[in-house]
């Protein structure tokens, strides 16, 4: 079973930046489309960015132009660079395959203050 470990969250002011990392165990990482999800209090988990095994990316409208997803298959790691953060970006951020195939990690909390 693949394990996912997210890190890099924190408390930032609006307009600030953070870079999240997600390390996955297992050698099948490179063949999967990966995604970053977030879940705000009282809301459903939503997919905000995804990246194919070849590096093609897609973003939710709410983060387009501000978030950048990338991956390093050699390190079994996917990243999320976030700039121009807004209070509405406050959530717990998770990574997983686009289909949510693997068990969810603990996530990493991102809090953006106004």
Please provide a brief summary of the model.
0% of the residues lie in helices and 48% in strands. With 114 residues, the chain is mainly beta.
Structural class: mainly beta
Low-confidence segments, given as residue ranges, are none
Distance between the termini: 40 Å
Which overall shape is indicated by the principal axes computed on the Cα atoms?
Answer: globular
Q: Using DSSP, what is the number of strands?
A: 10
What is the radius of gyration computed over CA atoms, rounded to a whole number of angstroms? Answer: 13 Å
| Mean residue pLDDT | 94
Q: Looking across the biggest beta sheet, what order are the strands in?
A: 2-10-9-4-5-6
Relative helix content = under 10%
Largest sheet: 6 strands, mixed
Number of helices: 0
Order of helices and strands: EEEEEEEEEE
Q: Which key features would you list for this structure?
A:
48% strand, four-stranded antiparallel β-sheet, 10 strands, six-stranded mixed β-sheet, 114 residues, globular, 0% helix
């Amino acid at each position: 079973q693949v394990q996912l470990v997210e890190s890099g969250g924190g408390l930032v002011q609006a307009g600030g930046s953070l870079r999240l990392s997600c390390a996955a165990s297992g050698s099948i990482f490179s063949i999967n489309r990966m995604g970053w999800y977030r879940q705000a209090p009282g809301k459903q988990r939503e997919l905000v960015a995804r990246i194919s095994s070849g590096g093609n990316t897609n973003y939710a409208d709410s983060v387009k132009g501000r978030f950048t997803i990338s991956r390093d298959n050699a390190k079994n790691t996917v990243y999320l660079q976030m700039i121009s953060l807004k209070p509405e970006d406050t959530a717990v951020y998770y990574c997983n395959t686009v289909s949510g195939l693997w068990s969810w990690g603990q996530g990493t909390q991102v809090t953006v203050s106004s």
